[in-house]
Amino acid sequence: MDFPFYTPKDAFPVGGAVRDLLLGRRPKDLDYAALDPQKAAEEAQRRLGGSLFPLDPERGHFRLVVGERTLDFTPLEGRPEEDLLRRDYRLNALLWRRGAVFGLEGVEEDLRRRLLVPVREENLYQDHLRSLRGVRLSATLGFGLPRRTREALGRHARFLQAHPEAIPARERVREELARLLLSPKAAYGLRLLERVGLLGVYLPELALLVGLHQGGVHHLPAWEHTLSVVFHLLWLWPEAPLEARLAALFHDVGKPLTRRFDPEVGRFRFLGHAEVGAEIARASLLWLRFPKEGVERVAGLVRRHMDRPPEERKALRRFLLKRQDLLPDLVYLMAADRLAAKGVEAEAWEVLGRYGEALKDPLPQRPLLSGEEVMALLGLREGPEVGRALKALLEAQAEGRVGTEEEARAFLLYWKGGREAQASGTPDHPR
């Protein structure tokens, strides 16, 4: 039996690529153990093309990127059996050699029972990312964590809490968290992250939601509500992008800092939590080195998730126009938030239904007239008034009141007359 991808001489496919093949998946990222990693990587580049660069030349780690596929080459340390004993989980301690798969004792049972078991607990401490990777693998592969594994991950989480200097590079943490969130079982993975103690290590802002009572329409504590929102977002929108998933995860992160008891209503309230949460989400995600553009989108979604869409169609189209850069993520987030509460579930379907109805006609992307045309028409100089005129025109287009350039000119002349009448205090200008 041949490995279904090019393998350089004296290099052996290992780890996740072999595991995925045994699970009936086509591997995307390939790991090779090689007698001479640099020589094997250069041979693969001559055969496949792509970009080759050293990951850690002192340790002999090299990476070849071919399109969307990544090939990593590391030294084969000692005999293959010894190399496997240094890996993280038995499910990853696999090696393909001469048409056969070699693995550690117990791996067949792990595959049959779909369980994730460390090779040795001490191996988690050789690369401190391994506990987080275990949670991510459980979510992405759909494998369970037996009690022994959960206890080992819990001990490692407590070690990282006591030794923050051991926390892996933020870029590596970001990649694992992103892959976890992009899994269909993201909510399950996040629950595991909390259960084994790693939530407080990597996302301490969110750990404050655990056990936080809410009241009102919320029948769940804040953390369970957050998990429910993530679950419902993916139920409504399985292809949701990473930014929408991050927004669902962080949407209530501002609640611990804004929780105040209101004696007039007899319960706790969280006034301003969306604005506070947007700033916390921004700081947390930038610290984890998420791309700035995506972070700003997440912050905008968190800030706007409490906005209430109006019922009237024209008003709803204005509402959506002002938030056009956050669509459709914002609407799905609002719906998921309602589905995760009690007594307001019907609002979720109303929000989605009105959104679909309102956008049967696409929202305008730009005003029908340019800034120069507006200035010439209204006799304006460059300045804020031109921006206000363009904004008013765009809103009129969204409402359906303006559809041609001629109508746009008539509307702006009427708009200007109304502003002049208002400024002079004339009471009888038509409205």
Please, could you describe this protein's structure?
By secondary structure, the chain is α+β, with helices and mostly antiparallel strands. It has 4 domains: 1-113, Beta Polymerase, domain 2; 119-205, Hydrophobic Seed Protein, CATH 1.10.110; 209-363, Hypothetical protein af1432 (Orthogonal Bundle), CATH 1.10.3210; 371-424, no CATH class. 52% of the residues lie in helices and 10% in strands. The protein has 21 helices and 9 strands. The chain has helices at 16-22, 37-48, 80-85, 107-113, 130-141, 147-162, 170-181, 186-195, 199-202, 204-207, 222-236, 242-250, 255-258, 273-287, 292-304, 313-322, 329-339, 345-358, 371-378, 384-399, 405-424; strands at 11-14, 29-34, 51-56, 61-66, 69-75, 94-97, 100-103, 260-262, 267-269. The strands form 3 sheets. A 5-stranded mixed beta sheet has the order 1-2-5-4-3. A hairpin with a 2-residue loop joins strand 4 and strand 5 (69-75). The longest helix is centred in the last third of the chain and has 20 residues, at 405-424. It is globular and about 90 Å long. The model has no long low-confidence stretch (mean pLDDT 91).
